[in-house]
Task: structure prediction
Amino acid sequence: MKLKHFISMVLICVLAVVFLAACSSNDEEQPEPTETPHYVEQGETGGEIEQPTIPTPTPEPEPTPAPVARGFERVIFRDGAPYMTHNEQLVVIDGGVPLVVDGVLLVPVETAQLALCNYLVWGVDDSIIIDGITFLPLQTIASELDNVSVGWDAISGTLIVTTGQTVSQASVSRNAMNNQSAAWFGSNESIRIGNILLFFQQASGGWATTPNFNMQPSYENIMLRVENPFGTDGLLDNGNTIPEIRFLVSMYQATGVERFWIGLERGIRGVIASQYDNGGFPQRMARPVTYHGEITFNDHATTDVLSFWLDITVNRQNFPSITGELLELVQESLDRGIQGILDMQIYSEQQGMLTAWAAQHHRETLEPVWGRAFEPPSISGNEGARVVQFLMNIPNPSPEVQHSIHSAVAFFAYTEIIGYRHVEGVPARHPSWGNDRIIVEDANARGLWARFICIDTFEPLFVDRNPPALRINPNESDYYDPIVGGFLPGLHLPLGGNRRAVYNEDGSFNLVESYAALSHERRNGYRYVGNWPNALPAQYQAWLTRNNLTSPN
Result:
């Protein structure tokens, strides 16, 4: 079927089905329509011109009720299929076929008026009679309609029509792709992005690199990657892979296009396959022997996966396509992940307190381990807070989950850095180094935590690269003491980073000087302190209220 003829047929069906709902939604009886005037187009020069047939005058009808406002609707047509999908319901196509004449799409007036319940009345200047049927250009009909968007998927021959919401035609970035309205999914821009994601998806089901949204792979190459993907890796940290899968889920549910289902299913199954039996997820799905294969909370790898699984299992109305065995796999993976979180929560023997979680845990023993040379085994003030927030989203939390939340919230309250403020953008020791970051005393300051907190002492851990990347011209080495605190060896790191720990004469930890002892490059290129758990107290109180609980602390 020619594309233009297919689209022509489809658009009239859209008018007939999508807007017919407006008729049935109005309980009042509609007035009888007047007879449609019969017009004939002028013939060629010299030919006889038929005059319009004037209808018999009829009494003035009662005022026509105003159209009933309708919400978002979606209609999907597939090339050659004798049916369409209207708001996820199959409907048999039974309507007239519009015509394309000199590049203009003409729609039967009688059918359009029937579909619109005579709510809209068009002028007749543009009408044309062909084989006894009165037509109007689509542009004339569409001029009375608002909020209509059309997306065309050339690979599958699928046309997606949405009404009731305005759809932006602008390009969308990766960061914004999952923040669009429901009507946007199925638009031409969403189809373009979906194709790019499929092109970059690995055989593992994940994405090993951030997709290039500026490229446009050919249809042949897209389907080649869908049918014969390659690559065994995939990233789970820093917002990789899970956003791509989430997008493909939305695309499949909006379009019903099979290749989007293939991509989302491959993604979900692949991520679950990378999960360890103890419930944790690695940073890289291929599970390398380096720290990238350890259980990773760093940059929210594990919590991003489990938050998506929780969304799927709890908010079922948003994921109607994920059912049966696939849903069971997601639920089992979620349950295993939650139990793994409970098993990995760190208990400080020296402090006698159940605390939070590390950025990385050993894939077998679950003990805290090194990440990079400046990421020591410790309690994480960043990732640990995100884990608590995930646990508080679990409906009907078990006593074990409740105890975990109570303990972690108490730990973060205990380790808040009070009386100090983090300042950015101050001049560095030398102008050629740029700006700098410092910690200063401020009696009124609150809401600061260390990213790495010592398991035994709860002191902040400031650890540098090994070797540090020192500035030159002038040389930072003239000021940098390479032995402050000593080197800390660890798993994957025969000689880890150099801890920058300065103590006062009374043995107390000097926060200001310890932070200043870091190299300029790391102090300004990494976030060693922040306000990550700042929202926990309010979230905790809301969680207690929501679950009718009281705090034991």
Observations:
- The chain has three domains: 3-43+64-163, 167-344, 345-553.
